[in-house]
Design brief:
324 residues; alpha/beta; Lambda Exonuclease, Chain A; five-stranded mixed beta sheet; 14 helices
Length: 324
Amino acid sequence: MKAIKWHEGMQITEPGIYEGIPLEEYHGNRDLFDGPSISKSSLKWLLPLHGGSPKAFWGRWKWNPDRVEPTSSDALVFGKAAHCLLLGDEVFSEQFIVEPEKYFNEKTEKEVKWSNNANACKDWHKAQADAGLTVIKADQLQMIRKIAEDAAKYDLVKQGILNGEIERTLCLKDPETGIWVTTRPDARPMPGVYSDLKTTSSLDEEFLSRQLFDAGYYLQGGMTKLVCEALGLPFEEFYLVYVLKDDVPDTTHVPISGTAIERGERSVRWCLKTIRQCLDAGEWHGARPFNEGNQPIYMKPWAADRLDEFLDREERSYPQEEAA
């Protein structure tokens, strides 16, 4: 299937593969598709096991004209900049600017250390935002460059796991619910193989296994498989390429298991049905833990055991007359 070139102002009405959609359009433009659309990043707010609910989802969903605008963070900026440098899908200087280390203080008529509390620095930040640039600190850029140098030496990266079709949007309108399902893997190095670059603070297996769920990567794999199968595209593997955010960077990769991808696909299907029901009813209910409040809440066994041990020990130490 050939990719369709997207252009500014274009509304997507047909399923397929699209190239050239800016990330801001993909995540923020309510009218990018001719109907409501979902992506992996929004679904975590819906799933109860992620602490979500229809209310939490609707309050942040781009289809809601009164949604809460997402806020950025140093971690998000770092990840976005790392993607830009390592994937090469965007010109870094057109997206980012490095925060200066000093600014000219008009009162002292000297260059002084940069302070984001100073009016001159606030004005500079506003000017960059108005120009559509994301500000990154010099030490962050230095670390990203070290990470990029390390990744470039990794065998699978040299073999092209982050090359091929970069940042293509795969999408379809779900025939059962009428909701657009969209996914945007970082790379498709060959037919049936997808990869996504992830920055991480640890390469510990236990940490990465938790992150597979906590960060919703299993949803990304499941959504990609669902869309590929609906478009008649092969789907064989979804690789996570990890780069370690550390003074001594490291690079590794791991495929998402078939069982995790299957759970992701089933979760996406549940989300689609739930969203459709809420849209039709015009109601987005809040969280309903413990069987909608009809089930009592218990301590976790480890907490109950520790508390019992403490109380039993203390009670045994009471003087006899006090215990009587």
